[in-house]
Write a structure and sequence with these properties.
single chain; alpha+beta; Ubiquitin-like (UB roll); five-stranded mixed β-sheet; two-stranded antiparallel sheet; 2 helices; globular
Length: about 90
């Protein structure tokens, strides 16, 4: 199965594939990353992560429409990527 997109960890340069059946959070956890989480549904904001490059596809209920339009943060528990690669401040 081909990945749907990838996330690049800016601090290490690692690239982690995200498959259609996975959330970004699950892909990060499978790659050994530990991200603070709580609801896993995009409601609480605990996993809020900074986006350095790429365009997230927001599916959360935490960020305001204006914050979503800025595309500089997203919730990896539920959101996806419109870009082939999403570079995260991790």
């Amino acid at each position: 199965m081909e990945p749907e997109f990838s996330v690049k960890l800016a601090r290490s340069g690692r690239v982690i594939p995200v498959y259609p059946h996975q959330s970004v959070l699950e892909a990060l956890e499978d790659g050994g990353m530990q991200i603070p989480t709580s609801c896993h549904q995009g409601v609480c904001g605990t996993c809020l992560t900074t986006v350095l490059e790429g365009e997230p596809e927001h599916w959360d209920m935490f960020l305001t429409p204006q914050e979503q339009e800025a595309n500089d943060r997203f919730l990896p528990c539920c959101s996806r990527s419109r870009s082939a690669v999403l570079v995260l401040d991790l």
